[in-house]
């Protein structure tokens, strides 16, 4: 059912071609936003634009690796031309995970993790903020339970998500008086390519994340739409007084610890 929670808004979703970002692109468009999807996966991005258009929504795709400044600048230039320099919502969702024992992690792994999960938020937010300053806006970052719960084999990933928490809080304080809110969604394990690979690789290292373990710690696997709906709330005016928050989407996993 189409809704109107983002009616007339201009939204960008990084990592919006697939997974929970793909779900967010669909949900935002269904709620009336004109959505720009920024992703490295061109085929998936274009296919999703077609799917959204067929459902009566508005979407465009611009290919970019959001860890690279020139590609981000190019994508946001195109977005600004499309949206006449007015952007209302930025969902910084693109990210990845590296699963390795800490002592096998290389400097290259560290740089890759920080570039894709942290520098990308810096580059995208810096490029988009000028097009929010005059009228306000909402930024939502995808963090994780891993920002506060340590997992073996994920030192680099956990560190990157800890940075995401503080990026969110600091942007919220600096831009509150410009009418810009910045919040984070912090999912547990989601049924996406990322989530499936993460669970498989953790199991190979003997970390206890069997299906039974997932049921015990978070009830069941999280569906991508459940993360998208939490991001929708934070992006919409329903969250008008929610700023600098980290919204856990983990079915109570962390409140049990
Ligand atoms: N899946 C989980 O269990 C889980 C849990 C908590 C947090 N997260 C977070 O969710 C985000 C993505 O997860 P997902 O589960 O939707 O994954 P996914 O792998 O299904 O989707 C990620 C999307 O981001 C895109 N992407 C990756 N690197 C990119 C880059 N450098 N530039 C542009 N696009 C890029 C991919 O092409 C893909 O479309 C990450 O920030 C991740 O840390 C995932």
Number of strands: 7
> Structural class of the helices, strands and pairings?
alpha/beta
CATH architecture: 3-Layer(aba) Sandwich
Based on CA inertia axes, which overall geometry fits?
Answer: globular
Mean pLDDT: 97
* CATH superfamily label: NAD(P)-binding Rossmann-like Domain
Level-1 CATH class name: Alpha Beta
Summarize the helix and strand pattern as letters: EHEHEHEHEHEHHHE
Tally of helical segments = 8
> How far apart lie the N and C ends?
37 Å
Layout of secondary structure:
Elements: E1 10-14, H1 19-30, E2 34-39, H2 42-54, E3 58-63, H3 69-83, E4 89-92, H4 107-128, E5 137-142, H5 155-175, E6 180-187, H6 193-204, H7 211-218, H8 224-235, E7 246-249
Parallel strand pairs: 1-2, 1-4, 2-3, 4-5, 5-6, 6-7
Helix pairs in contact: 1-8, 3-4, 4-5
This protein binds nicotinamide-adenine-dinucleotide.
Nicotinamide-adenine-dinucleotide is lined by residues 14-15, 17-21, 39-41, 65-67, 93-97, 116, 142, 144, 187, 189-190, 192-195, 198.
């Amino acid at each position: 059912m189409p809704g109107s929670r983002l009616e007339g808004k201009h939204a960008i979703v990084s990592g919006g071609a697939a997974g929970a970002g793909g779900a967010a692109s669909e949900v935002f468009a269904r709620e009336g936003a004109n959505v720009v999807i920024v992703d490295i996966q061109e085929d998936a991005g274009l296919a999703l634009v077609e799917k959204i258009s067929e459902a009566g929504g508005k979407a465009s795709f611009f290919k970019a690796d959001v860890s690279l400044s020139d590609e981000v600048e190019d994508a946001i230039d195109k977005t600004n031309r499309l949206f006449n320099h007015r952007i209302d919502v930025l969902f910084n969702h693109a990210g990845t995970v590296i699963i390795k024992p800490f002592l096998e992690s290389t400097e290259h792994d560290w740089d890759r993790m920080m570039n894709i999960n942290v520098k990308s938020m810096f580059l995208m937010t810096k490029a988009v903020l000028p097009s929010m300053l005059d009228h306000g806006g909402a930024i939502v970052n995808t963090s994780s339970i891993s920002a506060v719960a340590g997992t073996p084999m994920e030192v680099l990933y956990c560190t990157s998500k800890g940075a995401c928490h503080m990026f969110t809080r600091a942007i919220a304080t600096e831009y509150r008086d410009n009418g810009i809110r910045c919040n984070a969604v912090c999912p547990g394990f989601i049924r996406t390519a990322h989530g499936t690979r993460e669970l498989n690789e953790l199991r190979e290292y003997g970390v206890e994340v069997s299906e039974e373990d997932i049921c015990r710690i978070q009830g069941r696997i999280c569906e991508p739409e459940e993360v998208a709906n939490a991001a929708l709330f934070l992006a919409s005016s329903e969250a008008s007084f929610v700023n600098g928050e980290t919204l856990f989407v983990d079915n109570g996993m962390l409140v049990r610890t």
